[in-house]
């Protein structure tokens, strides 16, 4: 089995992602069957990572980051599920993210700003995570009436504003800070994101009290 995974490692990754997406997207229809499909997909993904030629540190990073994305996708689906189920998933997302942040800050794990691809996908991750947390808290803790489904529109709007705006600003500021251009993009994107969602969070929290 180990040799088979090693031999077909490149082919296994897309198959694993297909199984993961199919299992997660259909999890509410047939929970047991599709949870098993998603689990098989994740096991194949982990197997392909472990059989790679990366260092042990990079393998751990890839496994944790893949797990974070898988939990994020599950979080999108189950925000309106019973509180104990949705809270477990949200808690798992935050725990994995905390471990990753600790790894980034201690320079154990490759930083989010090591490449443009990682930086952009990290911003997308933050936007989706914010959307999930907003939807989940609105469903479970808000005293006001709430219509589900609008979080997807909000995520798309945030991404369409935050990422292009950050790239535009970075293209000018980066002329003087070429070596830290990717870092500038990431942190400018974070500031823009906070500028958009910060007041919404403040208003939401004040309405619960």
Walk me through the structure.
- The chain has 209 residues and is mainly alpha-helical.
- The protein has a domain at 111-209.
- Helices cover 79% and strands 0% of the residues.
- The protein has eight helices and no strands.
- The protein has helices at 2-7, 9-25, 31-50, 56-78, 83-105, 116-140, 150-173, 181-208.
- Helix 2 packs antiparallel against helix 3 and helix 4 packs parallel to helix 6 (116-140).
- The longest helix is centred in the last third of the chain and has 28 residues, at 181-208.
- The chain is globular, with a radius of gyration of 19 Å.
- The model has no long low-confidence stretch (mean pLDDT 78).
Q: What fraction strand? A: under 5%
Radius of gyration: 19 Å
- Broad structural category: mainly alpha
The number of distinct helices, counting runs of at least 4 residues, comes to 8
Distance between the termini: 56 Å
Number of strands: 0
Low-confidence stretches: none
What coarse outline follows from CA principal-axis ratios? globular
Percent helix, as a range, is over 70%
Order of helices and strands: HHHHHHHH
| Largest sheet properties | none
Overall mean confidence score, pLDDT? 78
Q: Care to give the gist of this entry?
A:
The chain is built from 8 helices and no strands. With 209 residues, it is mainly alpha-helical.
């Amino acid at each position: 089995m180990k040799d088979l995974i090693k031999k077909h490692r490149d082919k296994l990754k897309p198959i694993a992602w297909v199984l993961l997406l199919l299992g997660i997207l259909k999890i509410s229809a047939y929970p047991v069957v599709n949870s098993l499909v998603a689990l098989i997909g994740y096991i194949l993904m982990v197997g392909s990572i472990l059989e790679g030629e990366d260092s042990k540190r990079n393998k751990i990073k890839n496994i944790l980051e893949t797990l974070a994305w898988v939990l994020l996708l599950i979080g999108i689906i189950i925000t309106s599920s019973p509180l104990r189920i949705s809270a477990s998933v949200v808690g798992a997302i935050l725990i994995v993210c905390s471990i990753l942040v600790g790894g980034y800050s201690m320079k154990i794990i490759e930083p989010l700003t090591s490449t443009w691809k990682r930086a952009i996908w990290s911003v997308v991750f933050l936007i989706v995570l914010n959307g999930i947390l907003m939807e989940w808290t609105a469903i479970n803790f808000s005293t006001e009436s709430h219509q589900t489904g609008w979080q997807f529109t909000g995520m798309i709007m945030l991404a369409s504003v935050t990422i292009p705006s950050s790239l535009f600003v970075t293209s000018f500021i980066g002329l003087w800070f070429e070596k830290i251009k990717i870092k500038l993009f990431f942190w400018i994107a974070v500031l823009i994101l906070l500028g958009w969602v910060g007041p919404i969070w403040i208003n939401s929290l004040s309405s619960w009290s």
